[in-house]
Write a structure and sequence with these properties.
single chain, alpha/beta, Fumarate Reductase Iron-sulfur Protein, Chain B, domain 2, five-stranded parallel beta sheet, 16 helices, disordered N terminus
Length: about 450
């Protein structure tokens, strides 16, 4: 496994050197405990008790808040009657990645936020945990999805990107009987589910197991190591396949725009998280004693919490506005703070300080809003840092598209059916204009696109 970009191999004898970056900061058994399941699977009795709390609303606000429109009252009722398999099928009908979504979706700001019990009592039904209960039990007892592939249509579709949107689209197309070639640039399928989420949210290699579950439908030919703009060309795909679905995500990472970003210890958070997700032994992953994270979204929280769990002593998230403006949910912010992460607001990066070619500190400028515009106050705060993680968003690598598609604000423009400006190309997930940084939203994009592609090819 490759080490983190810009980091040398560091032995335990170097822990007093500058920068103070080392492996094995914790006792060996601490890593398993720290990175254990954030929300352990409910026991059957717990699931039934929780399911019985549901009012089974006819005009269920939770269902309306779910981006994939899962019939939540129905699957919870099925759990309450000991029909977990039926509950899982209800979930999978709308969201074939229901298992992962149950783990990573911010249910506290979606279905659970509008739960009638939340509104009335401040304690919603644990919809996410019940969804995981049903899907986990089904996947434990069944090697294949509950769907049968349709009769072969003879149509071929290229799906580029095997993340949530691509997997969702490929599965639905296979259900309709189409042949799918599913391409991905990495060695493993799964996209951010495999490489980009916090390890404590998805344990026991679940992302890979879910991919195998989805591919069990048949008719999907997985091709890893295939990258658009490298060994894949959009014009060639269009000439070879009847339709193309792009779910290429955001491959570029925004920079801070500061001198010294190439120094040791200045790291893209997404790269480090990917290495952490693939690490076979977390004690071998180098981590600084003093960490500063720049950003206010889920990635910022994920990297901050995980470096703390790896043994970093002082971890600070620096965000340029107030805490209620952070993109990370209240739950995620609370998780960070209860994990010992400090959140510094109204502060933006001003300069990176390097000593002997390595980051040693970061200068932050205090900010304020004037007439709705963010401005610096001139007040500088200096934080000592062995590592500075950049978590300020990602960008679409537009050159990969060869200038063939209409773009706006650095994203692919699509209509309600996820069709692009090209008649035979659809797109979904983070790469499209208006795309949300949510697994469940990407799944819905893939599902909508698949239905649109099927209708177009059946006309």
């Amino acid at each position: 496994m490759k080490l983190i970009a810009n980091l040398p191999e560091i032995s335990m004898t170097q822990t007093k050197a500058s920068p103070d970056i080392a492996t094995g900061r914790l006792p060996e058994d601490a890593y398993a405990e720290n990175f254990s399941d954030l929300h352990p699977l409910l026991e059957p009795h717990e699931a039934r008790v929780e399911a019985d709390r549901c009012y089974f609303c006819y005009d269920a606000p939770c269902m309306q808040a779910c981006p994939t429109s899962i019939d939540i009252p129905q699957f919870i009722r099925q759990i309450s009657t000991d029909n977990s398999s039926g509950a899982a099928k209800t979930i999978f009908e709308q969201n074939i990645l229901g298992g992962m979504c149950a783990r990573v979706c911010p249910t506290e700001t979606l279905c659970e936020e509008v739960c009638v019990r939340e509104v009335a009592e401040g304690k919603p039904v644990k919809i996410g945990e019940l969804q995981r209960y049903a899907t986990d039990h089904y996947m434990e007892e069944n090697d294949a999805t509950p769907f049968v592939r349709g009769a072969a249509t003879g149509k071929k579709i290229a799906v580029v990107g095997a993340g949530p949107a691509g997997l969702s689209c490929a599965h639905r197309l296979a259900v309709h009987g189409h042949d799918v070639s599913l391409f991905d640039a990495r060695e493993k399928a799964g996209g951010l589910n495999e490489y980009g989420i916090a390890s404590y949210k998805s344990v026991d290699n679940f992302a890979a197991r879910e991919v195998e579950f989805i591919l069990s439908i048949g008719g999907i030919d997985m091709k890893t190591g295939s990258r658009l703009g490298d060994n894949l060309d959009l014009s060639e795909l269009r000439s070879t396949y009847d339709a193309v679905f792009l779910s290429i995500g955001l491959g570029g990472v925004n920079s801070l725009g500061l001198d010294g970003e190439d120094k040791e210890g200045s790291i893209d958070a997404v790269d480090y998280i990917a290495d952490l997700r693939q690490a076979e032994n977390l004690s071998k992953l180098p981590v600084g004693r003093r960490i500063v994270v720049i950003g206010g979204g889920m990635t910022a929280v994920d990297i901050a919490v995980q470096t703390k769990l790896l043994g970093a002593e002082d971890v600070t998230i620096a965000y340029r506005r107030d805490q209620d403006r952070m993109n990370a949910s209240d739950f995620e912010q609370h998780l960070a703070q209860t994990s010992g992460v400090q959140i510094m607001t109204w502060a933006q990066p001003k300069a990176l300080v390097a000593t002997n070619g390595a980051i040693s500190a970061i200068e932050l400028e205090r900010t304020e809003e004037q007439n709705g515009a963010l401005t610096g106050t001139g007040e500088i705060v200096t934080l000592q840092a062995d590592m500075v993680f950049k978590a300020v968003g990602q960008t679409l690598v537009q050159t990969d598209l060869g200038g063939a598609l209409t773009l706006e604000k650095g994203r692919i423009v699509v209509d309600a059916d996820r069709k692009t400006s090209l008649a035979d190309v659809w797109a979904g997930g983070d790469c499209v204009l208006g795309g949300e940084d949510l697994t469940v939203a990407a799944v819905e994009d893939g599902k909508i696109a698949a239905e649109s592609i099927n209708a177009a090819l059946s006309a």
